[in-house]
Amino acid sequence: MGNVNAHDDAPSLLPLSPKVSRKERAAVLLALGGTSTIAGRALDVDPSTVRRWRQTPGFRATVSDLRLRLIGHDLVGALAAVAASENGGGQ
Fold it and tell me: How many degrees, rounded to 5, is the angle at CA 55 between CA 51 and CA 60?
């Protein structure tokens, strides 16, 4: 049967409407930390296509925006919390 890779089940785990384009779904997967290969295979798109999308400024901006939304709008507060935890709670 061969090796089973973690990304093999990705299409069934991606809870997005089929009305959302493959390009938009790829942006979500990349924002979540996926690679071009994982996104391509999950969406039945050649990974080189995803890599080409990643080269366009609009697509990169979309991925960046999604990443910021994932960590919250208070990026400065999030960074301060991380810094405080690394310094023993800011004491």
Answer: 100
Report which residue type is found at 28.
V
**38 three-class SS:** helix
Count CB atoms within 10 A of the CB of residue 26.
Answer: 26
Query: Do the beta carbons of residue 26 and residue 43 sit within 8 Å?
Result: yes
Q: Domain boundaries in the chain? A: 6-86
pLDDT in tens, 11-63: 444 555 667 889 999 998 998 899 999 999 999 999 999 999 999 999 999 99
Helix (H, G, I), strand (E, B) or coil at 4: coil
Alpha helices in the chain (DSSP H): 10-13, 22-31, 36-43, 47-54, 57-71, 75-86
- Look-up: residue for tokens 């960046």? 64
